[in-house]
Amino acid sequence: MKPKTFDRTFAGVATAAVVAGILAGFWILGTPGRQRAISSDRQRLSDLVAIAQNLHQDYQAQQENFQLPETLDDDEQRTDPITQQVYEYQRLSDTTFELCASFDTDSSTYPFSNRPRPPEARRWEHPEGRHCFEFDVTEYPGGVYY
User: Fold this and answer.
1) What is the rounded distance in angstroms from the CA atom of residue 141 to the CA atom of residue 146?
2) Alpha helices in the chain (DSSP H)
3) Fewer CB near the last or first residue (10 Å), C or N of the chain?
4) 35 phi and psi angles, rounded to 5 deg
5) How does DSSP classify residue 86?
6) Which residues is 102 bridged to in the sheet?
7) What pLDDT score was predicted for residue 117?
8) Could you please report the per-residue DSSP string of 70-85?
9) What is the separation, in whole angstroms, between the first and last Cα of the chain?
10) What residues form DSSP beta bridges with 89?
């Protein structure tokens, strides 16, 4: 094989390998826009976890005298990272409440979402769109497992 032909063949194979690698990356991980949407949803989950954990800590501190508030105080509220809207909080009973958010993605479609996770991680699975999580303030809400 002539050196010029070898160089062209090598350049063509190398270019094809790079393009295939980039395409495989997009296929596995998704586009940058999809990754931003997943990142926003993860921030939403972290915010909801923080609210639920704060309410649980308040319960732990007061125990018998504790009642869930009708509305969250300004310092307890958090806002959606994209819409800047306050997350929905609703008191359901003296010890139960729900927190709602609108998600941009379905958590079951995340890359590597089929890997084994702790059972408590299933509590944070959500569909695309508005979804509410129900909590009992007497139980620790756990954390998010990505």
Assistant:
1) 16
2) 3-29, 32-62
3) N
4) -65, -35
5) B
6) 130
7) 66
8) SS--TTT--B-TTT-P
9) 52
10) 99
State how far the Cα of 90 lies from the Cα of 69, in Å rounded to an integer.
9
pTM of the model: 0.77
Burial label, 87 (beta-carbon count in 10 A; 0-12, 13-18, 19+): middle
Give φ, ψ of 37 to 5 degrees.
-65, -40
Query: What span, in angstroms and rounded, lies between the C-alpha atoms of 1 and 3?
Result: 6
Contacts 24+ apart (CB under 8 A), 136-140: 136/95, 136/96, 137/55, 137/56, 137/58, 137/59, 137/66, 137/68, 137/95, 137/96, 137/97, 138/56, 138/59, 138/95, 139/56, 140/53, 140/56
Domain range annotation of the chain: 1-30, 31-136
Q: How far is CA 45 from the centre of its chain?
A: 5
Cα→Cα distances 51→9, 20, 40, 46, 109, Å:
59, 44, 17, 9, 26
- Residue 71: alpha-carbon gap to chain centroid: 24
Which regions in the chain score pLDDT beneath 50? none
pLDDT of the residue at 98: 96
Measured between alpha carbons, how far is 144 from 38 in angstroms, rounded to an integer? 14
What phi and psi, each to the nearest 5 degrees, are found at residue 65? -90, 0
CB-based contacts of 114: which residues, under 8 Å, 6+ apart?
A: none
